[in-house]
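FORM 7B: Structural annotation worksheet

SECTION A. Query
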Amino acid sequence: MSPFYPIKLLADWLTIKILQLSLDTHLGEAVHFFIYDSIKIFILLLVIIFAVSLMRTYFPPNKIRQLLAHKNQFTGHLAAAGVGIITPFCTCSAIPLFLGLLEAGVPLGVTMSFLIASPLINEVALVLLAGMFGWQIALIYIFSGYLIAVLSGFIIGRLKLEALLTNLPEVDAGKIANRIFKPSWRERLKYSKNYTFQIIRQVWPYVLIGLSLGALIHGYVPTDFLARYAGADKWYAVPLATLIGIPLYGNPAGVIPLVNALTEKGVAMGTVLAFMMAVTALSLPEFMILKKVMRLKLIIIFAGIVGVGIMLTGYLFNWIL
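SECTION B. Predicted structure
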């Protein structure tokens, strides 16, 4: 029995008994989808984000800088991508730490591995993917995103593009090294609780919007309609989804419910994940912020390498699933 079976029973009761809707109708099917996934997602978000934020209290920015500054290039990429997974999920909040790593003397390629992994693999996406598709899909997503981050950073590092960095502020390395804070267990729990509810307050509109669109697709779009244009057998679907996602700026909390609805309608998993990865890892607001410290050529190289990695991941998912 699925651990979410009690939630399904609650969604059945609310849809059929309270709202007096039949599950055999388009409206009833859409409403049931919205209720079931809303309850499931918010429970998962509360539990997983709290656990991840508690773990994050053991990795303050000064410790991250010190950890990566003493790595050689190869292990540095592996460590930086791993650190990126447990740091804040928003691209805009990851960029200040990315700049701090550059200021502390961490090589450009290593910092790029961090910058790519941080928005690409985050706790919100992990929670939603695991809840909707199971941990197997979530783990493949983590591995593929980690590999993209490591290899992209490695390639950028080998290209020796440091000359394309601009306007990096000076940093007092001694001040950074001495900025040490060791919270008590109570302070860690308080931080985790506050951070969890802060994230919930930030993402709940995106979750509900994404679920609403997903419910409409789930209830009203014919099963074979989207599959005809974005099935696994359509070679152009993955690059097209990636290119569509790049100019957009979205939150995975709003994108992944669409992933669920689209896959149920026959769109290949790799295609929708390529779209999601492009939205979260490559976006115009991110490029605008990076423009302050990077020349346009470096931004184009960064976007191109990551974009190719995302497309390869999309084809991989379509092949193995």
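SECTION C. Observations
The radius of gyration is 21 Å. Residues 122 and 233 are 29 Å apart (CA to CA).

SECTION D. Sign-off
Analyst initials: ____
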